[in-house]
Amino acid sequence: MPNPVAVVVVLTDAERAQLEAWARRPKSAQALALRSRIVLAAAEGLGNTQVAERLGVRRATARLWRGRFAEHRLDGLLDEPRPGRPRTVSDEQVEAVITRTLETAPADATHWSTRSLAAELGLSQSAVSRIWRAFGLQPHRQEAWKLSKDPLFIGKVRDVVGLYLDPPERAVVLCVDEKTQIQALDRTAPIFPMMPGVPARATHDYKRAGTSSLYAALDITTGQVIGSLHSRHRAIEFRKFLATIDKAVPADLAVHVVLDNASTHKTPAIRRWLAAHPRFTLHFTPTSSSWLNLVERWFGELTTKKLQRGTHRSVRELNTDIRNWIKTWNGNPRPYVWTKTADQILDSIARYCTRINDSGH
């Protein structure tokens, strides 16, 4: 049966100072702060009922922490270790996993898998997997990159990014490119539709029915796209597409066109057409820098949302599908917003070049 007489609490100067410090905590460890105030009130000679009323806690709570302090002093107010499975992977083992992953490779592969590294270090596969996730390590992935060797790289970046961030007045800025050799493909057997628990299934082989080339111009302000389909992609088709743009854009607006350095964009016929249409100004992206042309992002959406899993028995079907997709897009266009300045891009590339030079390769 509980002792009806409250335990007498007498504090040393050091204990009182520590309890007062804990009791003043404004944000963290509020449980410890409350326990400290209970003990300080008990040290004033108050009984458990009085302590409970003053601090707004239950009498049993006041009695518990008074007793814990009387038995274990300050350590009695700290939380005891929580129950649960003890840690099985040490800091040294975590470091070994990270070091092996980043600095070595197995004898029979280019990179570690969770199972091969687990066998090497004597850990479980799930332990290696948890460590990799915690530190963002993905040895199975590899991304590609390429640095432009264009001697005018800096000037071209500043020119194109300047158009994106501060378009000129009374002008339209269009990102132009062609997606060539789009294949009209049909599967050799019908596609099985998706069912609960079963994805759609298609044969791995297909029948080719011809190709088409899409010229597209993305308005960076509105997100609208001007598209034109052709069977080939020569300078003559590009000139026809420029004429299509000329008809689509109001005559009182200048036209700034961002495009790549393809040879079909620089032929004498194109130069003559541009001379006859002075409102057109071409802005070339640096070589090996397709990421700088926003229409490439739009081509990516066309590929993943329509072409990648589409089936077409003829080029006519393919062209009709693409035209309908462009019409749907223009019904609810979503412009891409460029945010990085030219200086930020150039600084990022400079840091990357420094990393490459410091790597010893």
Describe the overall structure.
There is one protein chain. The chain is α/β, with parallel strands linked by helices and 361 residues long. The protein folds into 3 domains: 13-77; 91-135; 153-189 and 204-351, 2-Layer Sandwich (Nucleotidyltransferase, domain 5), CATH 3.30.420. It is built from 13 helices and 5 strands. It has helices spanning 13-23, 30-43, 48-55, 59-72, 91-103, 114-121, 125-135, 153-165, 235-248, 268-276, 295-307, 315-331, 342-358; strands spanning 171-187, 206-219, 225-230, 254-259, 280-284. It has a 5-stranded mixed β-sheet. Helix 6 packs across helix 7 and helix 8 packs antiparallel against helix 13 (342-358). It is elongated. The model has no long low-confidence stretch (mean pLDDT 87).
Structure keywords:
Nucleotidyltransferase, domain 5, elongated, five-stranded mixed beta sheet, 361 residues, 13 helices, 3 domains, alpha/beta
| CATH 2nd-level architecture of the largest domain | 2-Layer Sandwich
Helix proportion: 40-55%
Number of domains: 3
Overall pLDDT score: 87
Determine the structural class based on helices, strands and strand pairing.
alpha/beta
> Which fold name is given in CATH as the topology of the largest domain?
Nucleotidyltransferase, domain 5
Q: Which regions have little confidence, pLDDT < 50, spanning 5+ residues?
A: none
Rg, Cα atoms, Å: 35 Å
Strand neighbour order, sheet with most strands? 3-2-1-4-5
Order of helices and strands: HHHHHHHHEEEHEHEHHH
Q: What name goes with the CATH superfamily of the largest domain?
A: Ribonuclease H-like superfamily/Ribonuclease H
Proportion of beta-strand residues: 5-15%
